[in-house]
Amino acid sequence: MEYVHGYSDQERARLADQAATLTDLLHADTRYPAGSRVLEAGCGVGAQTVILAANSPDADVTCVDISAASVTAARERATRAGLANVRFLRADLFDAPFPRASFDHVFVCFVLEHLADPVAALAALRGLLRPGGSITVIEGDHGSAYFHPDSEAARRAIGCLVDLQARAGGDALIGRRLYPLLVQAGYRDVAVSPRVVYADASRPHLVDGFTRRTFTAMVEGVGEQAVGEALLDAPTWAAGVRALHRTTEPDGTFSYTFFKATATSPPA
Amino acid sequence: MEYVHGYSDQERARLADQAATLTDLLHADTRYPAGSRVLEAGCGVGAQTVILAANSPDADVTCVDISAASVTAARERATRAGLANVRFLRADLFDAPFPRASFDHVFVCFVLEHLADPVAALAALRGLLRPGGSITVIEGDHGSAYFHPDSEAARRAIGCLVDLQARAGGDALIGRRLYPLLVQAGYRDVAVSPRVVYADASRPHLVDGFTRRTFTAMVEGVGEQAVGEALLDAPTWAAGVRALHRTTEPDGTFSYTFFKATATSPPA
C-alpha cells in the first residue's frame, strides 16, 4: 500500500518515465498518416487512446467501447490531454454503427484477451476496414512471465490469472496466438513482433513500475477470488506473491512479453 | 529423419539463411576493434568462434576449451573458414595459462549453463581482463520457451531438459540470471538484453531451422535418458515431442529467448 498513496513529484516523474518506456516499446512504431480514418476498437477508459492519438495528431481517430461508463471516462481523459482528433462512441464491436469500409486503419489493444470468440471480432473489424487497410493488435501473454529467483508458487499464482481469465471466457495466453487468429479472420500480410519487458536492478523504473506495480499488483489483485474459488490454497498464494516481490530485490530479474501484430484486409 | 539426410542445395541455402538470422540476432552487435586482444572462453567445436572472428577480422582472438578434441575440431573449422586471426589452446577456464590482464575483451557463449559455479568462472575470467575491459556473455533459458498450441506434456518434456542439466551440475534457466551472476563476480556496468526467437508460418526458415531442428531436436535427443531416469513416463514424453512438432504446423507459434549481457571489469 505504500506505493499507492502520497506520490511525491519525484515519484510522479519516475512513474511517467516507466510509462514512457512501455509506451515506446508498444506504440512508437504506430503512426497513422494525416487524414487517415482510424478506429480504436475497445478503447476502455482511454489509456491507449491518448498515446495513439498523440502519436498520430493529424489522423481522425474514432474510439468505441461497449461500456458507456468507460467511454465517458475515455472522453474525459482525451479532453484533459487536449486531444482534438478523437471522437468516442458506445458500440458493440460485433455490431458497430459504421458502413463497411469506413476506416483505413483499426487498432485493438488489450481487448481480444477478454473475448470468447476473438476470430469473430477480428472478422467483424475487417468488414469495417477498406480493402488493403491495416489492423494493429497488441496483447500480452501471461505464460511469457518468468523470473529469478524462480518459484513454483509464483508460477501457480500466475496460473490462477490464466484460469480466471479462461473461466470468464477469455485467454490470458493470447499473445502467442495473434498470428493464427488474424490468419483465420481473413487478414493478409500478418506480421507478429514480440516485445519483451525485461527488468533487473539496472532498470529500477521497470522493476518498480512494471514488475512490482503492474504485474505483481495484478496477481495480488485476484488473490481473494483465486483462493475463494479454490484455484489455490491461501498459503501457496501468499508464497507466490512474496516470491514475485522477491524478484524486485537487487539480484532479481523479471521478463514478460507483449505481442504486437499488424496485418491488412484483402484487396477488393 | 527426413531432415537429416540428403540436403538439397535449396535446403542448404535455407539452413544458411536460418543460421544467419540467429547469428544476426545474437552476434551482430559484437565487433571488436583492430588489434584488440579477445579471449573466447569455452569455444567448444568453434560454432560461435567462426562468427566472432569473422565479425572482428582485425582483432586478435584466442580461444580456449577444456576438451582437446573440441579444440582440434574448432581449429579445423576455423582453418576451413579461412580465418587467420584466431588461435586455439586447450585450457581450463579456472586455471588458464595467461598472465593477469592479458585481454581487452572476453566472450563466453553457451558455456555458463554447464558450470556448477558460474560466478567463480566469471571471476576467474575477470582476472584475465585488463581493468576496464569488457565481457560479453550469451546464454539461453529453457524456461522462456512457450508455444501454440500449448501443451502440458511438452512443458513437462522441456522440464526434463532442465532437470537433466541440473543433475549434471548446470542450469538450463541461466539466461535470466546473467545480471546477478555478473554483479556477484565483480563486474561493473552490467547490461542485459533479451533476444527473442519467435517463429510462425510467416517465418518458415525459423519454424524449420529453430523450432523443429534446433529446439525440438534437442528435446528429442534426451528422450531416452529422461525416460530411463524416470523423469517422465514414455507416453507423456512422446506426447510432448508430438506437441512440439505440432507447433510447426501453419497455425502454430513458438517463442524462445536468449540473453546477451555485457559488462566491464573495474578500473585499476
Automatic annotation (TrEMBL), chains A, B:
Domain of life: Bacteria
Signal peptide as annotated in the record: none
Keyword match Methyltransferase: yes
GO biological process per UniProt: methylation
Annotated Methyltransferase type domain residues: 39-135
Keywords: Methyltransferase, Transferase
A Pfam family assignment: Methyltransf_11
UniProt GO molecular function: S-adenosylmethionine-dependent methyltransferase activity
Name of the protein in question: SAM-dependent methyltransferase
Native source species: Pseudofrankia asymbiotica
